[in-house]
Every structure is written in C-alpha cells, then in structure tokens.
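Dear all,

This email documents one entry for the complex benchmark we are building for the journal club exercise. For each entry we list the sequence lines for every component of the assembly. Then comes the predicted three-dimensional structure of the complex as a token string, followed by one or two observations. Please use this as the template for your own entries, and keep the labels exactly as they appear.
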Amino acid sequence: MIEGLHLFVDIVSWILLIIGSICVLIGGIGVLRMPDFYSRLHAASLTDTMATLALLSGMILQAGFSLAAAKLFAIMLFLLLTGPTATYALANSALLSGYKPKTDVLEKKVS
Amino acid sequence: MTIIFAIFLLTMLVITAVAIVQSSNLFVSVMLTSIFSLLMSINFFVLDAADVALTEAAVGAGITTVIFLSALALTATQEKPNSSGRGIALVVVGLTASLIIYATFDKPRLGDPNAPVHQHVAPYYLDNTMEQMGFPNVVTAVLSSYRGYDTLGEVFVVFAACIGVLFILDARTGTGPMYVARQMTGLRHHLIPQVVARILVPFIVLFGLYVQFHGEYGPGGGFQAGAIIATAFILYALIEGEQAALRAVPRSAQLGLVICGALLFGMVGVLCMIMGGEFLDYSVLMENPVTARQIGIIVIEAGVGMAVCGAMLSIFHAFAARSAGDTHETV
C-alpha cells in the first residue's frame, strides 16, 4: 500500500516536472518566434506562471514532507507573486512609453 | 552532470560578456551585466561556494543593477562611438590574455586537495572551527574571526566608497525647495506593482535578518544581509517614491548606519585590547572563549550588515536625488 502510494506520488511529480519543462521550452520558442514585444512577453510569462507552478509542485512532491518542501513552497509563492507583476509592469511601461502592439500580422498572413 | 552544467554556464558567461561589449545601448549593457552576475552566482553555487553565490546574487545582480540604472538616468543611454586607440587596446588585451593562459598551465586541477592553496592555512580552519567557534560554517569563522582584519578593511573600503560617491555626486541634504517640489516620483499610478511590493517588502527584510543572524549555521552573514535589506528599502523607494522612502529611513539614519557599523566593528577590536587580548581576538570578551567568540562574531557581523546596508542606501539615494534635481531644473 505504502509502496503503491510512493510510486503514485513519484509518477505525479514526474508528470508535473515534464509539463513544467515543456512550458519553459514553449516559452523560449515563443520569445524567439513571436512577431512583436507584447506577444513575446505573453510567451515569456508562461515560464513565470505555469512552468513555475508545475516545476516547483513537482519538486515539492519529490522532496516529500520536509523542510526542503516548505522552502520550495515559499520560493513558489514568491515567484508566483513577482513573475506576473514583473510582466505586467514591463507591458504597462512599454504601453505608456508609446510602444504600439502590432495588429496587422495576422491579417497579412490570412489574406 | 556537474561538468556539463559548468561548461554550459561558462559558455553562457562568455556569450554574455561578448554581448555586453558588443551592445552600444547602455541599458542593454546594464541588463546583460545583471545576467552575467546571476550566471556567475550560479557558477559559484556549482562550485559549492554558497556564501559567495549569495553575495554575488544580492550585490552583483541586484543592487549594482539598480545603481547602474540610476546612474544611466543621469547620462545618455547610447554609448559614444569611439574608434581611436583600438590597436593599443587590442595589443594590451592580447598580451594579458596570453599571459593568463600561459599561467594556467601551472595551475593545479580544479578542486585538487593537494593544491598549495589548500595546504597552507585551510586545513587548520577546517579542523578547528567547530572546536574554537562552536558553529559549522567555516566561511563565517574565517571571514569574521580568523581573518577579521581583512573584513575590517573591507568594511572601511565600503565606508570610504560611500563617502567618496556622496562627495562626487554632491548629495543634497534634502531640505531645499528643489527637493520638496517633486512628488511625482515612484509608481504611484501603478496599482498592481505597488500592492505586490507592499506585501513583499516586510518579507524581504525578514529574510535579510534571517541571513544576518543565521550566518554562523548557513550561508550568509553581514554583507549579504545588508545588501538584501537595502534591496527592500530600494524597492520601497521605487514604488512609493523617494520622499516616502526618505521619511522611512532619513539620510541621517543611512549615514548613521554606515558610521555606526564601521565604528562597531572597530570598537569590538579595541574592547578586546582593553580586556587584555589582541585586536579582534574575541576569546577574552567572556569567561568561556567559545561563547565569547560567538558573541564577538555576531556583533561584528551586525556592524558589517549595518555598514553595507547604509552605504547601499546612501549611494542609491544620492543618485536618485541628483537625477530628480536635474529634471526639476530642466522643467
């Protein structure tokens, strides 16, 4: 029974870790491939939120019920607070300084 | 696995360094310098130097970037094109590089326990720290007790640097009419960063205090803690405006922190002499030499933390006051 539980936790944590890694990868590709600043920021913010959540939850499950898990949880909370805030501040200051989003890319591709 | 990671990090370091040199936009250079420091700090961590990694992350990647950015607010954002003297520079750099590469041929293998540097005084520190100091972090023991003179020197370097920067920037005392006129600083209209920063500031200070007083058992100590606490106050200044930050920690308090920190360190040394020992020999402070050393280390680490925190804050506010004054003049 305990063995099975351990195996289950291990599998779940590895699924989370892989999801997190894929999110980091998608974020990285997005930053390189997206057409303008705002959409790149959107891609980069994926690493701040989804990847952080998945990777650190996976690591917490790996650490088990210990001090390391508590520290990882604190780090996750910190990153989940600061990451999206930094993205928002960046996008907001870009907009305030007169940087217009590109809106014609999609139309050109469709036509 | 560690080797692969280290090679990856060092490659990234070289790429970042080349990018810093290549970029002519100074903002980009500053951000790349911050990334360079962060990579360097990860590198230190890979080499098991957690204390240095913490310092590099807090000072190099954190505070230096903010100070560079406030300096950039005073100057231009583009590098001036400069083509003269390239040949001489190339020769000098080439010669230095080949000398350093030549010198590495005699270098012992990385982490070799028989290397001369590990045979001199290091074994003594490793063997005696637990017995003489009563705590496990050898780095703190070396920094604040065995090599106390060096750290005292460093604190006075920080002190002198702070005084020097304040003189160069001609920091105003903060009472003139120019100073009162500015209320528009900070991110007052940015609600979300403001709310988040208000939540974070107390926790950053708390973490700084933890790093300060847990330095004997984990990585950390005065330098790191001072930098982290200064970061919290700088964040507060960026979010709430400089006026509010100066109300919280006035300039006299910042300078007082620097002076008291440096003095506290020196006074502990003098007190040791008065009690009949040598300068910075804490064992005479109390009956039990181990407790005495621990108390001495806690006090001087507090001095280091105060000096670093005060110096960082004074330098930041000197830059901020200067740029605010200049914009007011142009208006």
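Observations: The two ends of chain B are 58 Å apart (CA to CA). The CA atoms of residues 89 and 95 of chain B lie 10 Å apart.
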